[in-house]
Amino acid sequence: xxxxxxxxxxxxxxxxxxxxxxxxxxxxxxxxxxxxxxxxxxxxxxxxxxxxxxxxxxxxxxxxxxxxxxxxxxxxxxxxxxxxxxxxxxxxxxx
Length: 95
Fold this sequence. Notes:
Blueprint: H1 6-10, H2 23-37, H3 40-49, H4 64-70, H5 74-82
């Protein structure tokens, strides 16, 4: 038996945990945020670090390639594709 609600964790709710985000989670979120904002240099830096897979998604199902594509950030899209982003990846959320 575990001391937390498994359903909450599966849904991305970590409020009952007293932990901080680790380096992979932080880098993953930065990749998605930088892709959405169009910061090509920051996206390149995160990918070059090797900490993050270009296909990573957040707890809402958002991925960097779709976020960049929705905002027409062509340089970011090309950078993500150069690092192996999957054009067939589907987001969990609907817009």
